[in-house]
Design goal:
The protein is α+β, with helices and mostly antiparallel strands. It contains two helices and two strands.
């Protein structure tokens, strides 16, 4: 019998019987360094963020657009 969990299954012995549900999303190859607005993000990146918000049932507060520290922009700023 298949069952989906929306929270971590307890007791932990139940975890051994669980299988992850994978979802594939479209990727992007364009450089996002220096992106300062949500509209500048690739369409696939915007779709990815939206899907994460749906799955997490919470808004995303920050988006990193580069491996550099100063390139972490508040999503509120770029949205």
């Amino acid at each position: 019998m298949e069952k989906s969990f929306t929270a971590f299954p307890l007791p932990s012995t139940n975890l051994a019987a669980c299988e992850p549900i994978y979802e594939e999303v479209e990727g992007w190859q364009s450089n996002t360094t220096g992106t300062s607005t949500y509209a500048q993000l690739p369409a696939a990146a915007r779709a990815y963020l939206k899907r994460l918000e749906e799955l997490l049932e919470t808004p995303i507060a920050m988006v990193s657009v580069s491996p550099q520290r100063g390139e972490n922009d508040s999503r509120c700023k770029i949205l």
